Amino acid sequence: MDYPNNHIMNNIDSIIQQAEQHCKAHGARLTVKRKQILAGLIQSNKALSAYELIDFCKEHYGESISAMSVYRILEFLENERLVHKLNLANKYIACAHIHCDHTQQNVPQFLICKKCSKVTEISIKPSTIAELQTNAQEAGFKLISPQLEINGLCDSCIV
Question: Could you report how far apart the first and last alpha carbons of the chain are, in Å?
């Protein structure tokens, strides 16, 4: 992989090792191709589509992975709670909590920079989501997913 410096490479390797341990603990296996896709998402500072991940693997590993395979890998990684799908953009990001215990009590939410597409994962208390669900019900709606994707501008783009 091409990394700007060794610190980033070591950090990505460390995160991949944590993800591998997470999968083993759940009786799953993080294969080489799954690691490659996950590394692409970790390395990126923005959400990536399956086709952008295909390009990443070709550029960094010389691997040609079919779109169907990438979608299956992304589904596996999502089921293992290692990545999140941004539904509005139909793109994926690595979970910001891979390196920790991974037992989140809060609900992940996503801030998306409208200018540079950087995505930051934040957490919201379950009580806030419950209040949102109540408000939605009062308005005649049932929330299908508590995930919020909020557009804004990151500090780097506010100039």
Answer: 32
Average pLDDT, the chain: 88
Name the residue among 142, 71, 145, 147 with its Cα closest to residue 112: 147
Determine how β-strand 119-124 pairs with β-strand 107-113.
Answer: antiparallel
Say how far apart CA 36 and CA 146 lie, in whole Å. 29
The per-residue pLDDT for range 39-70, each reduced to its tens digit, is 999 998 789 999 999 999 999 999 899 999 99
Q: How many Å apart are CA 86 and CA 49, to the nearest integer? A: 10
Structural domains present in the chain: 1-98 (1.10.10.10), 104-159 (3.30.1490.190)
Whether this model's pTM surpasses 0.85:
no
